Amino acid sequence: MDRTFYSLRKGLNKNKDGLSLSDVKSAFARIYEQLYAEGFFHESFGFVCAAAGFLPGKVIDPELEILLLIRKKDLWPIERHLENYSEDDFFDMIEFLFLNVSKPVDGHYDSWDECGMHWETFNKVEGQAVFVSRINEVLSLYEKPFELSSRGEILEKPEHGFEQIFTADIPSPDENVKGRINSAINRFRRHGSTIDDRRQAVRDLADVLEYLRPKVKDLISKADEQDLFNIANNFGIRHHYEKQKTNYDANLWLSWMFYFYLSTIHVVLRKIESREAT
Fold first, then answer.
1. Residue 82: left (phi > 0), alpha (psi -120 to 50), or beta?
2. CA distances from 148 to 74, 182, 215 (A)
3. Which tens digit of pLDDT belongs to each residue from 144-164?
């Protein structure tokens, strides 16, 4: 149900701008418990049988696995350490759980002491899809704009009005172009991305336009073509020399440049596609 309730509509709700990290972690704990009880982590982390005790899963030592993959201690078990998670810890563990979730498909019911289902077959892809959906329900409550991608990465949500540009198909058969664009998007939106990461993302998009430049020349005016590359060349994005303009709010302007170039690339590719189809 997509509905905004009274106190939010009226702006009276103290949480109208979102919940704190502590509250979001509490909501996450309930979702995680539900998914575990439903069998979504039994394949990886095992479960407790009323008769046989704990039956381990594929990940024999989750604490060691986390240390090897995330390079952090004191994150497992989740229920013991969640309260002390920083935002980085919280997002690291969400991505770790994405790698280890799977939907239970078939098994047998153990009636001894009403133990419940012993799941034996699982579907990882379907489990990850359910996990992404449930986690994004939680992250949508957070006061900061983040979401879990279908690839299991925590990303910043796109700015309002630009949501569709990230889900739109890239109208090009050229895998080099597609790969460069998708890499730039992930670099820009990834949680914890630095100013240098974002500058590199803008540089990658400018490079895509440079690659397309021979096909663009007859689609836009000479002045517009020069303006496109003037932004990257004279504002400390692609080259480095004394007369470049670098005294600007990097967070603000890199965001503007990123969306400007990404939108331009989509327009240019569609124009090229339309021309080549005739």
1. alpha
2. 23, 16, 36
3. 999 999 999 999 988 777 788
46 burial via Cβ count (<10 Å: 0-12, 13-18, 19+): middle
Phi/psi for 221 (5° steps) reads: -70, 160
CA dist 82 and 20 (Å) reads 14
Query: Look-up: residue for tokens 């080099």?
Result: 176
Return all residues near 266 (Cβ < 8 A) that are at least 6 apart.
165, 168, 170, 171
Q: Is the peptide bond before 77 cis (omega within 30 degrees of 0)?
A: yes
176-186 pLDDT, tens per residue? Answer: 899 999 999 99
Integer Cα distance of 257 and 255 in angstroms: 5
The closest of 184, 159, 158, 165 to 269, measured between CA atoms, is 165
Token pair recorded at residue 244: 């470049």
CA distance 179 to 12: 45
Q: Hey, which bits of the chain come out as E strands?
A: 47-49, 53-55, 103-110, 116-123, 146-148, 154-156
> pTM of the predicted model, to two decimals?
0.82
Residue 56 has pLDDT above 90, yes or no: yes
The number of helix segments (H) and strand segments (E) in the chain equals 12, 6
8 Å CB contact between 155 and 191? yes
